[in-house]
Amino acid sequence: MQLSGEYEPSPTGWVREQVELYERTGGREGATLRDTGLPIIIVHTRGRSSGKVRKIPLMKVEHNGEYALVGSMGGAPKNPVWVYNLEADPDAVLIQDGPEPFQVSVRKIDGEERAQWWERAVAAFPPYAEYQERTSRVIPVYIASSR
Question: Span 24-36, mean pLDDT?
């Protein structure tokens, strides 16, 4: 499954290269965050302004077939751009966790549900806790569920 529209690779070199390697090998290579050994997924969205397909590697935080998408941006003071793409069209999202991407619906979570998923996210990628300490914003968490 693919999103319709022209794909625009990331301007960030390592992101562009990781997505290309992951897709070219069906996830056999490029499936971890650089040299950490920690697993990632590729998230496909459509740019809210450009309409172009965007692909980003995110940490794999999966539980019972659902995925948490954590908008940490390393603890920066603002959300990553992909957060706004998700919010603009939460049904135009694909997840690739292996050879083929699949369609998901995405929703933002808060309260107790966010707290539970945040614990899972920090367990999967401990730097998230530090990222939250670096910023005054509450790092957004979205749940992606298969359709």
Answer: 91
